[in-house]
């Protein structure tokens, strides 16, 4: 285990700056391997603090249309688990500080082989995992083995996570807590800030881990509002949409890095 | 050997299969459902209501019919048909829907959702939703809507809203994804009636229990008719609810052989099939670990079957367990074999079976001739074929002078 992980360093540094982290989500291999690589490598310079990289899955049950389409584009262009890990490895050759969290569903990891996956992910420089369909009841599958490889297992807390359930959700959580702002799929309706602030402060009473908020955050205004009371703001579908609307790969890169810069500016200013 | 009859364990596992692989948003609800179901299972009032609706509304018990002409035709085993197609709505699906809608009422849910492939589960769900005055949304793939238009119309008549699902291949798997997305979004007021013995715990066990009425009746009826248990049970398997409903009450009887028939499509070797056990590998999808059709990278493959109800790349986790334990033998029947058996059943018995059921009959055609008359073989006649007229006409239309089919 690292003495202090990239995620810990990142959150500690941001605390000194008194600002939240900007977390971007993109699907690995979307729209194609080469463009996806350019997108990934340019994210830190555009202002992303933590990178979430989606492992595409054919049946993304918790995702809305934007990320469903992203997964299909990536798979149609030949993305695999091995290629996703290779993307991380090549990113780490140039960047040793920006944390990367892989996000996805369990089946592609299970089929790759859990031990082999964790060993290769750790070697590639993966810092954390978010696996949507592995609740704490299945911690022995991946969460506990991940800890042995020094990879954080980031847990989702949701509006349905009541006081009775919360201790279980927090039990083996590490890295940060991802608060799902609305009951629903990614890219859905925006949460109301008041209720969200309340939920985040309740969550804080039970955990020392940083709290990220995601699902339904699309605009610089939303990012700023939510960034005032959370430790990180996750933007996904709005970025992924840029790929769909882009006319060329260059256009996609320009749009995404452009939107990231605006969001980055917004989270940097939100507590001033 | 482990006693498969006492599974799943507290975590919903049948050996390594089953489980609760769902998003955290759904977990509190799934745990609540598990508790509510555990109470209902032992609640005399719930069981009384269930028995009442199974009897007066569904029309149970369904007959166990000696298929004399089919027996003569194949010239071997004595063939009995468990007439689930005579149930209200024309298939076994309603056995489960009645149980789940009673549970939904008990839990105070205000809205019903379901996925459907062939439309029989959709029709059964729309039916119970109408009966209990609950709004109902059915997710159905566009490919299935195309080939099961009669059922789409039936569901609409029953007051259900049909949401066409275009993602993926527009079949059952995609409908299930979309129903899960609805559920996670409307988790407070919505009850998801899953139609087969799959999904997160407690669904595989709960659906099995509601369908086990098929096997319990068969046992009593065969004892009355022949004074002994059947020698073999045959049923088609997609997700596997009609098969498990028939098999489960006999799992502890070693003399009873059980055969599950998967959809072989164009043949398991062709790669165009829906035979998860015969042509798949273990994986995690739709809340449970089971055998799936998938590539080596864990991406789910498309299933292929003439029968919309079997066109699913997975199978209930208890079947995966029974397969690995060797308690049930799983075979497959191709589209062509099913169509052939379909016609034999029509002509010999005057019963038009569902295309799903025809897969079980195709196995009977292979197996019955090799067995003596004393061998008592029960086939689950899980559904009637009215819904399949368009599909069958498409494949056999020329033969019957329906040129435009």
UniProtKB/TrEMBL annotation, chain A:
Organism of origin is: Vreelandella zhuhanensis
Q: Which residues form the active site?
A: 52, 63
**Its function?**
The alpha subunit is responsible for the aldol cleavage of indoleglycerol phosphate to indole and glyceraldehyde 3-phosphate.
User: Any idea of its EC number?
Assistant: 4.2.1.20
Subunit annotation: Tetramer of two alpha and two beta chains.
Q: Looking at its record, which EC class is this enzyme? A: lyase
Q: Name one GO cellular component term.
A: cytosol
Specify the pathway.
Amino-acid biosynthesis; L-tryptophan biosynthesis; L-tryptophan from chorismate: step 5/5
Segments crossing the lipid bilayer? none
- This chain belongs to the protein called Tryptophan synthase alpha chain
Among SUPFAM superfamilies, the record links this protein to: Ribulose-phoshate binding barrel
Identify the InterPro entries for this entry. Answer: Aldolase_TIM, RibuloseP-bd_barrel, Trp_synthase_alpha_AS, Trp_synthase_suA
Q: Which GO terms describe its molecular function?
A: tryptophan synthase activity
List the Pfam families.
Answer: Trp_syntA
What's the superkingdom here?
Bacteria
**UniProt keyword annotation of Cell cycle present:** no
UniProtKB/TrEMBL annotation, chain B:
Whether Lyase counts among this entry's keywords is yes
Q: Which Pfam families match?
A: PALP (PF00291)
SUPFAM superfamilies named in the record: Tryptophan synthase beta subunit-like PLP-dependent enzymes (SSF53686)
NCBIfam families, A to Z: trpB
Subunit and partners: Tetramer of two alpha and two beta chains.
User: Pathway, per UniProt?
Assistant: Amino-acid biosynthesis; L-tryptophan biosynthesis; L-tryptophan from chorismate: step 5/5
Cofactor list: pyridoxal 5'-phosphate
Q: Which reaction does it catalyse?
A: (1S,2R)-1-C-(indol-3-yl)glycerol 3-phosphate + L-serine = D-glyceraldehyde 3-phosphate + L-tryptophan + H2O
Q: Which GO terms describe its cellular component?
A: cytoplasm
Supply the InterPro entries for this chain: Trp_synth_b_CS (IPR006653), Trp_synth_beta (IPR006654), Trp_synth_beta/beta-like (IPR023026), TrpB-like_PALP (IPR001926), TrpB-like_PALP_sf (IPR036052)
Enzyme Commission identifier(s): 4.2.1.20
Family the UniProt entry places it in: Belongs to the TrpB family.
**A Gene Ontology molecular function term of the record:** tryptophan synthase activity
Query: Where are the N6-(pyridoxal phosphate)lysine modifications?
Result: 93
Which UniProt keywords are listed? Amino-acid biosynthesis, Aromatic amino acid biosynthesis, Lyase, Pyridoxal phosphate, Tryptophan biosynthesis
Biological function: The beta subunit is responsible for the synthesis of L-tryptophan from indole and L-serine.
Q: What is this protein's record name?
A: Tryptophan synthase beta chain
